[in-house]
UniProtKB/TrEMBL annotation:
It comes from Duganella margarita. Belongs to the acetyltransferase family. RimJ subfamily. Signal peptide: none annotated. GO terms for molecular function: protein-N-terminal-alanine acetyltransferase activity. This is GNAT family N-acetyltransferase. It holds the Pfam family Acetyltransf_3. Residues 1-170 form the N-acetyltransferase domain. PANTHER family: [RIBOSOMAL PROTEIN US5]-ALANINE N-ACETYLTRANSFERASE, GNAT FAMILY, PUTATIVE (AFU_ORTHOLOGUE AFUA_3G00765)-RELATED-RELATED. One of its GO terms (cellular component) is cytoplasm. Keywords: Acyltransferase, Transferase.
């Protein structure tokens, strides 16, 4: 497995990854709009992420197979706020690669980027109580739940899921 920055020519690989894992992801996170699942939709998504990357507001990464031919996961450092020294992390690992430690490796990569490249001091992650795997990953990497932060509610398969804030001080 390799981790690298998302690239404009990742359209076909990213579309294959997102399409293959769509049902798996939609069990845990809010569904993407149907128009995302096309070459044009993914190309627009990548262009948006790369614009945000160029502006210093995010750092989008992909996890690839050893040969680089397939995307097997994603990891994003986003909402980079240089003034407050904070950012938000998120990741998604393909179903076939789940429970192999890739989420932890991706999060550790984002933590290193946040510290060394962006000089951030605090990272946030929003985790649903139903997503036990993600909760284990963030806790293993030193994040703790902020019990005072109000939850954020999103729709997962038509059901409201309250995600809780986890933070890590770098």
């Amino acid at each position: 497995m390799n981790i690298r920055t998302l690239q404009a020519d990742d359209v076909d690989r990213l579309l294959a990854f997102e399409t293959t894992n769509r049902a798996w992801f939609e069990q845990h996170v809010e569904a993407r709009a149907p128009n995302f699942y096309s070459a044009a939709g993914v190309a627009a998504h990548i262009a948006d992420y790369l614009d945000s990357y160029q502006a210093g507001a995010m750092h989008p990464c992909v996890l690839t197979s050893d040969d680089g031919a397939a995307i097997i996961g994603r990891a994003n450092l986003r909402q980079i706020d240089h003034a407050s020294g904070s950012g938000e992390v998120g990741y998604r690992i393909g179903q076939a690669q789940a429970r192999q430690g890739l989420g932890s490796q991706a999060l550790q990569h984002l933590m290193a980027l946040a510290r060394t490249r962006y000089g951030l001091r605090i990272l946030n992650a929003w985790i649903s109580p139903q997503n036990l795997g993600s909760r284990r990953v963030v806790e293993k990497c030193g994040f703790t739940r902020d019990a005072l932060a109000a939850p954020v509610v999103s729709q997962v398969n038509g059901v409201g899921h309250a995600s809780h804030l986890y933070q890590c001080h770098l």
